[in-house]
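Assemble and predict.
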Amino acid sequence: MREALSILASATVLPPSATPSGNYRRRHRHSTTSTTTKPRPNHNPKQKPQFPASSPLLSSSRWANRQTLAYYTKLASKLADDGKFDDFLMIAESVVASGVNMSEFLALLESEHLARGIVRLLCDGKLDSLVATLFNGIQKLGVEPVGLFDEVAIESLKAECRRLLKCGELERLVSLIEIFAGFQFIIKELVEPSEFIKLCITKREPTAAIRYAHIFPHAEVLFCSIILEFGKKRDLGSALKAFEASEKILSSPNMHAYRTIIDVCGLCGDYLKSRTIYEGLLAENITPNIYVFNSLMNVNSHDLSYTLDIYKKMETLGMMSDITSHNILLKSCCLAAKVELAQDTYKQIRKLESKGVLKLDDFTYSTIIKVFADAKMWKHALEIREDMLLSGIIPNTITWSSLISACANAGLVEKAIILFDEMLQADAQPNTQCFNTLLHACVEVCQFDRAFRLFQCWKERGSQQTISGDKLNRAYNEAVDQMSEMGVPLRLCSHLTMRVPYRPTTSTYNIMMKACGTDYYRAKDLIDEMKTFNLTPNHISWSILIDVCGGSGNVLGALQILASMRESGIQPDVIAYTTAIKICVKQKKPKLAFKLFAEMKKYQIKPNMVTYNTILRARSIDGSLLGLQQCLAIYQQMRKAGYKPNDYHLKQLIEDWCEGVLQTERRSERQFASHITDFGRQSLLLEKVAEYLQDSNAESLFIDLRGLTKVEARIVVLAVIRKIKEKYVAGKSIKDDLSIILEQQRHGDRASRDESGVGEAVIRLLKHDLALEVIEAGSRTGSDRDNKGSPTNSSLNFEVDEKGSLAETSESPTRRPIILQRLKVTRKSLHQWLHRKTVSSKR
DNA sequence: ATAGGGTTAG
C-alpha cells in the first residue's frame, strides 16, 4: 500500500492553482468552523504530497475512468481500515484537489471506513477543514448517520469528549460538537449537558453554553440554568450574554428566562439592571407574567417605594398577585423597618385568606415574625405564632429561628433559650444560625460566661469526636447549675442534653470572640481553635480581634493585627480601619488615628460615614490647634464625599474650638500660622477662615459671612475671635469694633429671611456661648427710600460704611431694595471678654 | 421556576 502511495505521489502532477490550500479550505473556514474554533494546523505539511502540475493521472478526464476511481477508493478504504488515517486523508486530499466530483468518491467508500477515518482524525486534533469537508460531503450525500457511525466510531468520539471535558479543553470540545451538531443522536451521547455547561461556566463561555443547550429539546430550561449558574458565580456579564444569546435563538420572549436574569441581577447586586430589563419588556409591549413581577419585586425589595409601585402596576394590569407577591411586600416592609405598614399588609393578607383567595404560608409567618423581631416587639412576634398554630402551619427551622431572635433582640436571653427548648421538643432541627442567635443574645447582654458555657456544651455534645463522659458531664452540670441559678426549671434544659450535630461556623467564632470582652489571648485562642473545624477567620474576625486587642489598651498590638490581616491575605476593609481608628481615638492617640486615616486612603479604601464620625472624635484631644485643623479638613472631605456631617459631632467640634479660644497659650501661634496656607484652597469655608487669619488682614475687624452656612459661619466667627485673642495675648490691643455682615435679604421677602439661620446662630454664638455684647442692625441700599419693612433692629447705633463690602453689593443688577443685616461686637465688649478670659485662664 | 433566619466599626 505504501508503494501505491509513493507511486501516486511521484506520478501525480497538478497545476499549482489546484493545490489543497485552495478554495475548499478557505471557503470552509467561513462556513462550518465555529467562532470559538481556531483552524487547527494541518498535519505535518512536510508529509504532504507535492502534486506536480498537469498530471495525466489526476486530470478530470482520466478520473472519469471508473476503474481508476475504484482503485483509489479501495486504497482509501484499506488505509482507513488499517488506521492509517493520515494517508487516507492524503488520498482524499488529492481527490478533492483534482476537482473531481467528490460525492462519487465518497459514495464508493464504505461508510464505516469513512466514519472511523473522520472520527479518528478528529480525535487526533486534526480538525482540519478537509476533514470537515469530507464530513460535510457525507451529510450532503444524505448518508444515514445511524449507519455511518458505528459503535466503534461513536465510542472513540465519546472517549475523546470525556477526555476533553476532563482536561477542560472547551475550545476543542466545542469544535467537535459543532461538527456533529447536525446529528442530534450523536450529540446527546457525547457530553452530559450539565457537565458541558459547568465547563462553559468555569471558562466563562456563555455563548458556547447556549449554542450547546440549543441542540436539546426544551432548550429554554437549559438556558435558564446557564443564566442562573453564571449568576451564582457573580458573573452578571456572562449571564447577560447568555440571556441575550437565548433571546436571539428563541422565537418568542421567554418569561422564564426573563425572571431568571432578573433574579441574577439581584444575586449580583445590580438591581438597577433588573429595572432596565423590565422596562425593556414594557417597551416591547410585552406583559410580564407573575413570576417576572415577583422576581422584580424581590430583587428590588430593599426599595419599598419601587416594590409598591410594581405591586400597583400588577394591580392595574389586572394581574392576580399570589401569596409570594404578598410575602415579598412584607419582606420589603421588613427591610424598610416599616412595622405599621407590615402589620397592615399582614392584615390584608389575612383578609384575603378569609375570602379564600390565598393561603398564608410559612414564609408569610416567618417574615412578619421577623418584622416584630427586628422592632424588638417580641410579644407581637409570639402572637403571630398563635395565628400560625391556629391556621395549621407547622413552624419550621426558620420560623423558630425568627421567634428566638425576637426574644434575643429584645435582650430576653432566658425566653430565647426556653423557645429553643420548645423547638427541640417540637422535633424541629436547630441549625447553626439558631445556636448563633442564642450565643449572640448572651453576648449582647454581656453574659459572656454563659455564652462560653453554652458553646462548650454544644461543642462537646454535638461533635463527632468521642468526648469522655467526665468532660461531658462536667460541662452539662455547670450549665445546669447556671440555669438553675437563673431560676430556669430543669425540665426546660433539654438543650443541654440534646445530641444534635453541632458545627460552629466562622460567625459562631466571631460571636464568641466578642464574648472575650478585652481578653485578647482568649480571642486569639479562638482564632486558633477555628482551624480544628476547618474554618478561617474572615474580615469580621479580624476586626473583632483588633477591637478586643485595642480594648485591652494595647494600641500597638491592634495596629499589628491590622498588618497581620493584610499579610494573611485579607485586605483590611473600611470596617477594620475604622475599628483601628476607633481604638486610637479611644486611647487618646489622635496622631495614630490620623496616620491610619491617611493610610487607608493610600490603599484606596473609601472612608464612610462611620469612619468620618469616628475620626472626628479625635478632635483636639491634645488641645492643639493642629488637631483641630486636621478635623476641619476631614469635615470638609466628608462633605465632598457626599456625607452630611453629623450636627452632633460638628457641635462638638465647634465647642472644642471655643474651648481653644479660651485656653490657647502663646505657643500655638507658630503652629497656627504654618497651617493656614495648607487649607486655604480647600474650600469656601477654609478659604474664608484662612482669609481672616492672614497677617495682612491683621488690622481688619470685619467678617463677611455671605454664602456660608450657619455651621461654617460659626467656624469663621470663632476663627476671627481666636485671632483677636492671639493678638491680644501677643500684646496687640483691639483698635476697632468687630463688624459682621450677614446674608443679603430681599426686602419684603419674609420667607427668605435668615432662611439659613446664619444670623440666629451667630448671635447665639456671640451672645450665649461667648457672652459678648452684640448689636444687631440692618441697612437699606438701592433706590427705595420707603421706610416700610425696616430691619428688625433699626434702633441700634449702626453706621453704614461707604467703602468695603458695600461696594460689592451695589454690583447687584437688581434695583430692588436690599437689606443687609449686620452685627457689631464693640471693641469695649471684646476687650472685657478678653480680659475676663485671660484672668480666668491664669487662675 | 419564585421568597425567609445568625456575626463586624459610630
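Residues 1-60, 464-469, 663-683, 780-815 of chain A have pLDDT under 50 and may be disordered.
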